[in-house]
Specification:
26% helix, two-stranded parallel ribbon, five-stranded antiparallel β-sheet, alpha+beta
Length: 168
Amino acid sequence: MGDFATGTASAKEQTRISEWITTFDTVFPNHVNPLGTLFGGRVLELMDVNASIACWRFSRLPAVTASSEPVDFRAPIFLGEIIELRSRVAYAGRTSMIVRCEVFGENPSTGERRLCTVGHMNFVALGPDKRPTPVPKLRVETELERYHWEIAKTIREGIAKRRAQAPF
C-alpha cells in the first residue's frame, strides 16, 4: 500500500463544510441473525467504513476510530433489503471529529424507505508520523447542521468527561 498519509498543509487554519457521504449495500443471508434481520455488528461495520470516508473527505487526512458513541437501532433491516448509509462530520475538534451516521432500510419491491439506525462515531486524524494531527474547522451553515453540531458537541464533552474519570 502506498504512502497516503500526507494530508494537507495547515489543516488547522482551514474551515470546511462536511458533505454527506452516501453508500449502498444489500442484506445477504450471511449478514442476518436468526430472526432474519441485519446483524447489528454488520451495521456498525458499515457505519465505521462510511464514517471514515466522511472524515477523510472532510480533513483530507486518514483517520482512525477512537470510539463508537450513542448508536440507536430504531427499526430492523430485513434480508434482501437495500441499506443506505449516510455520514458526515458533525463536529470537528483540534484533532478529532464526531461523525453522524444514519442508516436507512429500503424494501426494493415497494420502495418503502425508513430510518433504522442513528449513531455517532469519534475519529482521530493522523499525520505522516501516525500521531494525532490538526483537522480543519467545521463550517456550520444550516439549522440542521447546527442541531447536529450541538448533539456532537455534547457527545464530545461526554467523551472528555468519561476519559477524565477513567481509573486507568
